[in-house]
Amino acid sequence: MTNQMGRILTPDSLPKCLPQATLMVKGHEAILSVPSNDYTFSGKSAEMIQGIFSFLNGTNTVNIISQKTCLASEDIISLLDYLCGESVLIDINNENKGSLTGYQLVELVKQEIVFWRQHINNQIFWEKVHNGTCSKRQILGWGIEFYHYVDAANEYMAAGVAYCRESIDVRQKIAAHYAEESDHGEIFLQGLMKDGLSATLVKKSLPLPSTRALINYLNEVAMESSLVYTAVFSLMQSDGKSFSKIDLTEYYSQLIELYPFAQGMFGSFLKHALIDARLDHQISIFENLYANDEIISHREVKRTFVTVRQLVNCFILYYEYLFEYYGKEDSQLPRRAPQVIDFLLAENKG
Ligand SMILES: [Fe+2]
């Protein structure tokens, strides 16, 4: 039941299962359900998953789970390693991974990204987008905040090139990646214009604090090292599964059907996704640069995971707050600088 990486967890691991995972018992079987799959356990594995499931929240070590459930650590690790390989579970103990080869690090990051994508996709924002219950403000507000995020490539990707301290070859690849992304903000601006927004007002609008926090974080990451900087693209570039032109077109057509006023905006999302597909962005720059035999130190491995997880937090807050802010009927769209009157109750606004 271990994956091709061999053992991933240790007795010190802090296993965290996808928060949306549920466990159902049917006769002698236990079914673990996550959005993308159901895992059926039978016999001893079924008993084990029932015993340990409630402890898989990232706060209990395997040793503690073993003590509380009287199950052997080795058996728990075998079962959890399998779930890790399926990206249903991660070890959130950042101290737990030693130095790794580039291949191993890239593989572990890819597994973890699948985990976090499911978590991000399960946020209320996406549920509302897909069931058609977002307001016009929320959809167009998303378009504006997304424009700010995409256009910020000219900040943080430029920093990624400037602060590269590796070989010329690595810097050239990072620079080429920046060049490919540098004008993508314009695609989203054009889309918003088609939907009736003023390009000048969108460009001048203030990003929400949460959007700015995401961009600021990317700026810091870009200065730290090329390894952690490129690792963030594992999350930000598409996962490669959704790169079929037919699937992309169908997905955005459905969104246009739900939100016909945002035809221009979703047209831009589609156009952008197709450009990324053409540029082979389904293999991230991180994989291109670091999937090799070079040894990556424990410190760098740790920084990679800390960074990816922090970026997940930034994205969750980004979606959460744009949904909240543009959910208010009196919110500015596009935003201008906040004024005191924005925070007064309606009856006091005069
Ligand atoms: Fe892009």
- The named CATH superfamily of the largest domain: Heme oxygenase-like
The CATH architecture of the largest domain can be named as Up-down Bundle
Gap between N and C termini, in Å? 67 Å
Q: How much helix is in the residues?
A: 55-70%
Specify the biggest β-sheet.
3 strands, antiparallel
Set out the fold topology.
Layout: E1 15-17, E2 22-26, E3 29-34, E4 37-42, H1 43-52, H2 62-69, H3 73-85, E5 89-91, E6 100-101, H4 102-121, H5 124-130, H6 136-151, H7 153-162, H8 168-181, H9 184-194, H10 199-204, H11 209-224, H12 226-236, H13 245-258, H14 263-278, H15 285-290, E7 295-296, H16 298-326
Antiparallel strand pairs: 1-5, 2-3, 3-4, 6-7
Helix pairs in contact: 4-16, 6-9, 6-11, 6-16, 7-8, 7-11, 9-14, 11-12, 11-16, 12-16, 13-14
The protein binds fe (ii) ion (FE2).
Fe (ii) ion binds at residues 181, 184, 272, 276.
